[in-house]
Specification:
Elements: H1 6-23, E1 28-32, E2 44-50, E3 56-61, E4 67-72, E5 78-81, E6 93-99, E7 105-110, E8 116-121, E9 127-130, E10 142-148, E11 154-159, E12 165-170, E13 176-179, E14 191-194, E15 206-211, E16 217-222, E17 228-231, E18 243-249, E19 255-260, E20 266-271, E21 277-280, E22 292-298, E23 304-309, E24 315-320, E25 326-329, E26 341-347, E27 353-358, E28 364-370
Antiparallel strand pairs: 1-28, 2-3, 3-4, 4-5, 6-7, 7-8, 8-9, 10-11, 11-12, 12-13, 14-15, 15-16, 16-17, 18-19, 19-20, 20-21, 22-23, 23-24, 24-25, 26-27, 27-28
Length: 371
């Protein structure tokens, strides 16, 4: 998941919208891979976060199925890293998830016992481990740091010894505050989840999603003072694994997310700071089971990026300016069968977009889209 003046926001919105409308087919896409990334099914390079300077953080999966973090500079050089304590077997390792303007990275690692631990990687490369006090230590339990704001405050999710999810906020002095939304389910797999990448803004507002006892998704925003406000999106389904899920929040407090309707189709929504909700769909998104529009990230001006899934189950990228105009794109080399395609994850203040594409062999590759 930070505030700017109205005139500044208006100017940024106008310039951003105009630039994208002019750019159209002139958009530049740069593809990249971490040199040690694996080249088999499910392996490859996974960019997750791009900061205001154009640096990118994420992780890659090597030929043995182990995760490692990486940082790609704005000039294209790549530094790989592993958190102390990481496991070295398949499905273990280190994942970078959120990168702020200072070059600090929040993420998590999976140890040799399959437990998760959060971390903060300083710009100089020093690691600080993060474990929520009530996090479990069993398989698939533990702490995941998912988002860091420009001041260094971190938001994340932890799973307790019963397999129930909860969220937390970590202040810059290391103090951890745990919280859960009222109404969250208390069985394994249920609970309260934070949004990754832009899940906390500079003001300290945190959007989140909770899964209730009937396995229905609901969304909320937690104010800097800890007060949680729930909200609903008209048209969201009320059956199991339907409802609202948030993707992130920007400096002005606008929240991006998706809702799943009663037919299990995805749709995008944008909740303004005043609570007004705007729903949207990308033309070309399918209307079948688990098809449709899945927004992923929102920047300062309110521009959003994400993917839409067509009627054949193929993923495609989109960019939506705050005025509502949508530009669609695909990365050359992306696969064209179900589960493959182009998946944008993050966009920064300059409207640069990063994410990954899945080729015809189901290998993942990174991309950077700029004007």
């Amino acid at each position: 998941m930070k505030r700017i003046g109205f005139l500044t926001l208006l100017l940024c919105t106008f310039l951003t919208s105009a630039a994208w409308l002019r750019a159209g087919p002139k958009l530049k896409i740069t593809k990249f891979n971490v040199s040690d990334a694996g080249t088999r099914n499910g392996q490859g390079t996974f960019p997750i976060s791009i900061n205001s300077r154009g640096a990118i953080a994420g992780y890659y999966i090597d030929s043995s199925g182990v995760l490692h973090g990486f940082l790609r500079s704005a000039k294209g050089s790549i530094t790989t890293f592993d958190a102390p304590g990481w496991g070295s077997r398949a499905r273990h390792g280190t994942a970078g998830y959120s990168l702020n303007s200072k070059g600090e990275i929040a993420g998590y690692y999976i140890d040799s016992s399959n437990a998760l631990h959060g971390f903060l990687r300083a710009a100089g490369g020093t690691f600080t481990e993060i474990d929520a006090p009530d996090a479990g230590t069993g398989v698939s339990q533990g702490t995941a740091a998912l988002s860091i704001n420009s001041g260094g405050t971190i938001m994340g999710t932890y799973t307790d010894s019963d397999g129930v999810a909860h969220s937390f906020e970590r202040a810059t002095d290391g103090t951890i505050t745990e919280f859960s939304a009222k109404g969250a389910g208390k069985l394994s797999g249920q609970g309260t989840y934070g949004a990754y990448n832009d899940g906390i803004n500079d003001a300290g507002a945190i959007p989140g999603t909770y899964l209730d006892s009937k396995n229905v998704y609901h969304s909320f925003v937690r104010a800097p003072n800890g007060v949680i406000t729930k909200f609903k999106v008209p048209g969201a389904g009320t059956g199991a694994y339907q409802g609202e899920l948030v993707s992130g929040i920007n400096k002005g407090g606008a929240i991006l997310g998706q809702y799943i309707d009663s037919s299990n189709v995805y749709h995008g929504f944008l909740r303004a700071a005043d609570g007004t909700i705007t729903k949207f769909d990308v033309v070309g998104g399918g209307t079948g089971y688990l098809q449709g529009t899945e927004p992923a990230n929102i920047n300062t001006s309110g521009a959003t990026t994400g993917q839409y899934i067509d009627a054949k189950g193929v993923n495609h990228g989109f960019f939506r300016v705050s005025g509502g105009t949508i530009t669609k794109f695909n990365v050359s080399g992306a696969g064209k069968t179900s589960g493959q395609g182009t998946i944008p994850i993050s966009n920064n203040v300059a409207d640069a977009i990063t994410g990954y594409y899945i080729d015809s062999r189901n290998v993942y590759h990174g991309f950077l889209l700029t004007q």
